[in-house]
């Protein structure tokens, strides 16, 4: 690997453009060498603003480019499968924004393809694992200090969502983070999902089942509940509480930076969106990925974080969640045996 | 009513003795005139320590005593039905510690007997309604400030329970408070209950299903979840969060009175038991009951708080909860139509 | 003493009327038997609303009344000396709202008169000692848990003061509470006072030096600073932090009862006035005083709280404070040797 | 300027080595090209671990090196004057860890030398200005939301200091941060300083006056008090409260990342040292300095933060503080008129 990692960013919409700015202005030891987008002008315009950066029109060509050391996928989900397989083919480490792919079968295909290659090249963008609060919570659990975790409570609230957001997307785009958090914190698979549909928010778009309350059971019988409410009008609030046999621990009671007293009231501000809440987590995720890629050659492992299996597992749980959303019943999660791969 | 209300306290175990001390040393306008207990010595010993107080051996005689203006029932649940009916018969206002009676049928019988009398004489000891935090939360909901409540999250944790506590008692003695809180805050009935049984606490007595997570649905489709965990070893923690269409509100993040910094850590103490957490609520409950009894004559209403119907409704929900504890399934709550009484 | 203590309340302005209501509706074992006010109608009107209560026109007659067991003084400060001496003369226990008297000499005279009598009859209304937060802070200090206290920081903020409030009253009426808190927490006398006069609040009445920052030094060299700011327009905020050799502890970060999330912000309400903040402290103060008076006969001590000496010491410190307000210099506190009395 | 800024780090003790690691692993668009230390081996060892980095034995030679674009001074204070003047001479932007120089006169000489050059090349390492909490507090003040600030309270507590730390160093090394914070937040100069010496911590080294309480008055008459306590044994705690005419605001109530409940208590961890508390502030400071240096050519301004004048002002205030430490009296700050330079 060169001293300065040359990254191709595929997809420069909101998320991808954010990563381009991040790599350019905040990340040590890396630069954006290539950008690509199906809106060609957009990519070219962006490339022009970054020293040493080119726009490449074809994503597969960008992946194959010999002057690209690693790939960051921020393209739409349906293109992921093909692009991930191309990365594997060219032996390029890839950071893939969620989802891994858009369904369980293709996710499993990607898992298998990487397994056959024998190198860990694919990292999935579950950035919460890099958030300082989640990281400390995980450490606390692993320390044994609060005993074995028995129950986890999550809340995930957005002030608003785009107009086209539907009830299944609440599962696949929002709840998916609680799926990964559960697997990360408890170190085991989720075996069943039930989605409860409370009386819907009158201020939500017609037909949107919001809020939803998801119930997970895990392999060893732990219980997780997760309220997802994406049209609160309030702020971006993410909270997780782990209740263990010797104590409990909570993160995400956002207290803001400044505590203010004003006539009759006190308090602080809450993060308006995931960008403020998890901005630092994204920075850490990308810096650590860049660092891991650079040392990966020796070990065959080019990732420092959740991989293809985690993307597949999340897809399997969300598929069960979408089914439960329809039936209201508890749905078993169907996954292959990890040791079979 | 005389200027100083003469109260008979029936049952002077832990709870009753606490009420005797409260009325004697903290409540204005009332005194304990009579005490009764099936352990006669215990009642006589207590009576001797209070000026103007007598022990009466027979509870029904104590109720009928012409020098008793009102009754406080802290006797074991199985005796409540007979004692409540005696209070109605003699027209004596009565504060009845939960449960109203030990089953749904007898609870309904008491509701009907009081309805026939046409006077509201029976108050049930759901003290949380008098807690300053719950009262302010209720006010906030009623103000419309956080919009229509859609979801409620509760946690109810005890450090320990007596040795004979079984899984059904977690529903009937602990969860019953969340049942009443739900009905109080949301002003509607609970229509179904499901008890989820996570992997049990290894430090709990063998066979005790602890923790339990209860799910309530209400008439208009609101969702409530309540974690009840009675062997945490930690402290007495009671928390309720109401998530509304315009905002959310939480009570019970016990922060203690003093914020202390010590080597490496900061924090405060948590209430060790319900006595510290709800001591003030009990004081308020009894003072307001005493005040209400004194003015009751004019209105036929001698209570300022939850009444017999609330006791019946709680019994009906808990009965469904116990059934769900056995089956794991969602169980519909069976209640008569209130307008039929 | 009779079973129900018969109290004469002298002065039924805002403070006195509040005490009358408190004794009547919240305190066990006592009743208001006599009320007095220089506005005779006001006293008579109030008396008529309370069973068994009379208005007595002459305060000294009220004190002497054989059907009065104890006296609560809520009269203007300039009348205190004469009324306190009358209480001593008739051997009546008296709860005296601050100040003890209006100057250091007469305060000392009262201290000496009580000392000669050999009975502790006078309690001074420093209610903060009965506040649960201050009581726990005192316990924490006394436990040794945070080591020897070296520095204390206080803030005392009022939203507004009456129009006639002048700069010296900020010392004598507001800062006096921090004087007593300091003596209570640190268990020693204050030896010097300096008042710092920052740039004044533009929203305060012209000529009012507000805020003020007071610096106290104590006998053993501890340092206390107290910001007093009585025209904040915000709320009633009282905070005390004790910094010890092994840790620190803070009270008064008013967090309210409910934590609310609303668009963009979270927080709670702050107590609007001392009545909400210290209402419970007043209740406790009066209940414990009533209880102490009843058992006082045996011991000659009819008080449970700060006494005449504490009133005198506060007067001496405030006198030095007023002098410093004029000069800006540090002023030594002049007090007699306690053992000389 | 080249695309990747080539920095010489002078002094690679704890602070300098930290900056070398930071630039290498966290900062975009810069690399450490040269390191220097009077312990030559130490510099050579470090250089060997960083691709493209050389050790240069003579600091002035390192500054003059044509392949060095900017300098970071982490050398001992007594060498700063000569090194800063060399930076000015070679037109090299320089980030100078505090102090600017070790006395007021030489600090002024540096200010004048830079002024004569007509380019802003010198930034001083007051990192708190880049801390997210201080930045938001500053914004809040500037927004007018809490009105004009009248009083500021600061606390600055360290768990421990090195053995050679003396009472004057508490002023010059610790309190200096509150000096800069005051000037930053209030946008005016400090005109007098008084150091109060409370009874000293028995656990501090013999002869160390710890804690100290500093009082500042500013040009327009605002009051600042700052408790500095460097042997608390507790943690690294930095708190600032600004009391304004319309409200107040506080930062630094360190709540940790995780809120934990354990038997009887709740709470979180506190940052053990300034590295954890201000790590992010250092990162932001250096990244923004690197970015500013790169665009500086066009404007003659190569800094984004406090400059030489701020270093001089801090020196002048600290000199007055050290004098007050000796006399106990209020000491006027002597500074030249800024417009005269």
From TrEMBL, chains A, B, C, D:
Pfam families: GFO_IDH_MocA (PF01408), GFO_IDH_MocA_C3 (PF22725). It is an enzyme of class 1 (oxidoreductase). It catalyses: myo-inositol + NAD(+) = scyllo-inosose + NADH + H(+). Residues 134-249 form the GFO/IDH/MocA-like oxidoreductase domain. Keywords: NAD, Oxidoreductase. Its EC number is 1.1.1.18. It comes from the Bacteria. Signal peptide: none annotated. Belongs to the Gfo/Idh/MocA family. Homotetramer. This is Inositol 2-dehydrogenase. It comes from Rhodococcus sovatensis.
């Amino acid at each position: 690997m060169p001293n300065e990692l040359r990254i191709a960013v595929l997809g420069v919409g909101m998320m991808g453009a954010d990563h381009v700015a991040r790599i350019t202005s905040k990340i040590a030891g890396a630069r954006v060498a290539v950008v690509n987008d199906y809106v060609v002008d957009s990519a070219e315009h962006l490339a022009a603003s970054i020293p040493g950066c080119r726009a490449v029109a074809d994503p597969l060509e960008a992946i194959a480019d010999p002057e690209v050391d690693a790939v960051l996928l921020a393209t739409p989900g349906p293109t992921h499968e093909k692009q991930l397989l191309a990365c594997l083919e060219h032996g390029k480490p890839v950071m893939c924004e969620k989802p891994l792919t858009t369904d369980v079968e293709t996710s499993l295909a990607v898992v298998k393809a990487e397994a056959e290659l024998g190198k860990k090249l694919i990292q999935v963008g579950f950035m919460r694992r890099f958030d300082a609060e989640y990281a400390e919570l995980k450490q606390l659990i692993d320390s044994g200090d609060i005993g074995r975790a028995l129950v986890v409570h999550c809340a995930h609230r957005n002030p608003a969502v785009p107009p086209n957001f539907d009830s299944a997307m609440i599962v696949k785009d929002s709840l998916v983070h609680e799926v990964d958090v559960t697997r990360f914190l408890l170190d085991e698979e989720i075996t069943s999902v039930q989605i409860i549909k409370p009386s819907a928010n009158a201020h939500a778009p017609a037909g949107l089942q919001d809020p939803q309350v998801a119930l997970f059971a895990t392999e060893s019988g732990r219980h997780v509940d997760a309220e997802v409410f994406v049209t609160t009008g309030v702020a971006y609030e993410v909270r997780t509480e782990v209740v263990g046999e010797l104590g409990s621990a909570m993160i995400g009671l956002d207290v803001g930076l400044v505590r203010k007293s004003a006539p009759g009231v006190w308090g602080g501000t809450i993060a308006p969106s995931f960008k403020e809440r998890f901005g630092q987590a994204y920075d850490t995720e990308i810096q650590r990925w860049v660092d891991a890629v650079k040392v990966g050659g020796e070990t065959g492992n080019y990732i420092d974080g959740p991989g293809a299996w985690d993307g597949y597992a999340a897809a399997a749980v969300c598929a069960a969640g979408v089914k439960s959303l329809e039936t209201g019943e508890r749905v078993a999660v169907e996954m292959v045996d990890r040791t079979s791969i």
